[in-house]
UniProtKB/TrEMBL annotation:
Ranges where the ParB-like N-terminal domain occurs: 7-107
Taxonomy, superkingdom: Archaea
UniProt-listed SUPFAM superfamilies: KorB DNA-binding domain-like, ParB/Sulfiredoxin
Coiled-coil annotated spans: none
Protein known as: ParB-like N-terminal domain-containing protein
A GO biological process held by the record: chromosome segregation
A cellular component term, taken from the record's GO annotations: chromosome
SMART domains reported for this sequence: ParB
Length: 297
């Protein structure tokens, strides 16, 4: 007996699949999607498979989070749209098939970070697919596959220290703090660029491990990007552990907090020009401007 076009499943029965490739869930993007769903409804059902006594969401992690947000913050809209269940296409998929499907959809939509793509491709590679088979199945160039897997392999040396990337610093109540993978991937890319220019004689994976250990999970994604900016400006940080530790401690002591801020396009251009002229990052320049303005009040 064939399944109908979609099946209505209770939200409580749905969870991200163990092979879903998405690591980073942007809360602002989830909120925007939830608002859109509240107005226009769910345009595409979730693709799920039976998993762990419920159903694992293979395609549609962002939609799942948006529906959960509606349930918490807009119960009337949730009841109107999903009172009878969440529209899902139920498919019998093994791990490799589910991983391929999750990767294919998200690569096509261009919604994954390089780290997430690398992680997914590396898992397919570990499952026995060759680079050529991955290229044919996902329509991704071999060079892209190699670069993505290379990036993920560099982060893999610090997996014991890493966690999913979320805004703000990791919570202090955590007994085992974790470092942002997205932040470390930025550090790895900067060191790789310096290495190609001959400005740093050190492997990116070594710096990734060192930064992960020194930061002890106390730096957010944005703060790790500041570390990457400092290394870019002063390549000696890549080989001098004491200087690197000093920079990391300095950033931790300042106490940066990430906020999504709406800025005018013309102001962004001016701030970028000032930052480039002074050899600092956009965030550092913006903080200087705000601090100066507040002191003048």
């Amino acid at each position: 007996m064939e399944l109908p076009q979609y099946t209505l499943l209770p939200l409580e029965a749905l969870k991200p699949s163990s092979v879903n490739v998405r690591i980073v869930v942007n809360p602002e993007a989830v909120r925007r999607l939830a608002e859109d769903i509240a107005v226009r409804g769910l345009l595409h059902p979730l693709i799920v498979r039976p998993e762990g006594g419920g159903y694992g969401v293979v395609c549609g992690r962002m939609r799942l989070e948006a529906i959960r947000l509606l349930q918490r913050e807009k119960p009337e809209a949730f009841q109107r749209l999903f009172g009878g269940g969440v529209p899902c296409v139920v498919r019998e998929l093994d791990d490799r098939e589910a991983l391929e499907l999750s990767l294919a959809e998200n690569i096509r939509q261009n919604t994954l970070t390089p780290e997430e793509i690398g992680r997914g491709l590396a898992r397919l590679y570990e499952m026995g697919l060759s680079e050529e088979e991955i290229r044919q199945r996902l329509l991704v160039e071999v060079d892209t596959i190699r670069r993505a897997i290379k990036l993920y392999s560099r982060l893999a040396v610090a997996l014991d220290f890493t966690s999913e990337s979320k805004p703000g610093r990791p919570p202090l109540r955590s007994t085992k703090r974790k470092v942002s993978r997205a932040g470390l991937s930025t550090v790895a890319r900067v060191v790789e660029q310096l290495q190609l220019k001959g400005a740093a004689d050190v492997k990116p994976e070594e710096i990734v491990r060192r930064v992960a250990e020194l930061s002890e999970g106390r730096l957010s994604t944005g703060e790790l990007k500041l570390v990457a900016e400092r290394i870019k400006r002063d390549p000696s940080l890549a080989t001098d552990e004491n200087k690197l530790k000093s920079i990391i401690n300095e950033i931790m002591q300042v106490g940066y907090v990430e906020r999504v801020v709406l800025l005018r396009k013309d102001l962004i251009g001016k701030i970028e020009n000032l930052a480039e002229r002074e050899g600092i990052s956009f965030d550092e320049e913006l903080n200087k401007i705000i601090e100066k303005a507040l002191l003048a009040l």
